[in-house]
Amino acid sequence: xxxxxxxxxxxxxxxxDDLSHAEYLMLYREAGENLLFAKRQQWLILAYLSMxxxxxxxxxxANPYDLKxxxxxxxxxxILTIFAIAIVIFLQFWQINEKRIIRNIAGGLSxxxxxxxxxxxRGESDAHRYIMLFMLMAYILMAQIAxxxxxxxxxx
Length: 156
Prior knowledge:
The chain is mostly helical.
């Protein structure tokens, strides 16, 4: 059945002139690279936040008897958590915009490219993206809770 559908498919090139086509391809590649960069940055934020929490814990462990200092470190961990959440959300919106750019550019290219891009539905992509965003946020919040419990246990 699939072979019959493939036999009926007719490749239609884009109607763009060569310079416009090259420009579309450059923009398509750039948007893809921006998308990957934003995704890598999200994971780096988690790594840096985790290292910051470890650092805060070790600093607190070195001086666990100064309640004022522990409160200061707790505030620092809250601020880092808020910054991390904001950055992850900004990066998510950046990814959404880059995917929109890619989708618009793809509309001007060949029907073969559009056919290949349609193999994964937009809804499926959105579901994966938001599930991953939820998991990133859950990690950040769980790490913050663990940090608070560790700091508060030093006060007892």
